[in-house]
Amino acid sequence: MPISDEALQSPKNNFIAVKGEATVGQAIAALQGEGGQPWWHLVVRMDDGSWGITRFSDLFAALEKMATASEVRLGGRKGFTKAVTIERDSMETPAAQALARKSPGRLALITVKGVPVGILAEGVMRSAAEIVSTANLNELGGKYVNLKDYGSILLSSSKTPRSADSTSSSTARQN
Questions:
Q1: Which domain holds residue 138?
Q2: Is 172 a domain residue?
Q3: 109-163 pLDDT per residue, tens
Q4: Which 3 state secondary structure label does DSSP give 17?
Q5: Which of 1, 39, 78, 151 is most buried per CB count within 10 Å?
């Protein structure tokens, strides 16, 4: 039995997944376009082919003093937690959650045919210290980011349907 939709749809598992060539500005535009919040996770296909994960609020904290933060390309950036990747049909939900709890960052990226369809964030809690306002995050994204400019870099998000039949639309976004 695959990892359940119920587990993937938990609010703590909200995410945006982007290609490595995406800039910070484009990722923030994608977050805005998907109706996301600063505490959502950002999943990036890194230059070496691995997946990196961080929260948008942590990205803000790392880049808030950088004048050209919106132009920073994400695929080569350091500071992401290397994601443990689990193919959705390879194990059941409890086993995947246990693996996520033991992984760096207590997170696991769930894929179907290599395309992100969800994350499992286990034991990860938001604290008052990491809350970033949406306005501050928008400033990091840059003044002139076109909200339609994120479509070419967006691989998937927690708003993307997760059924096996819907992976063709996620794959279409990837190309």
A1: 5-167
A2: no
A3: 999 999 999 999 997 555 444 455 555 555 655 554 554 555 566 777 776 654 4
A4: strand
A5: 39
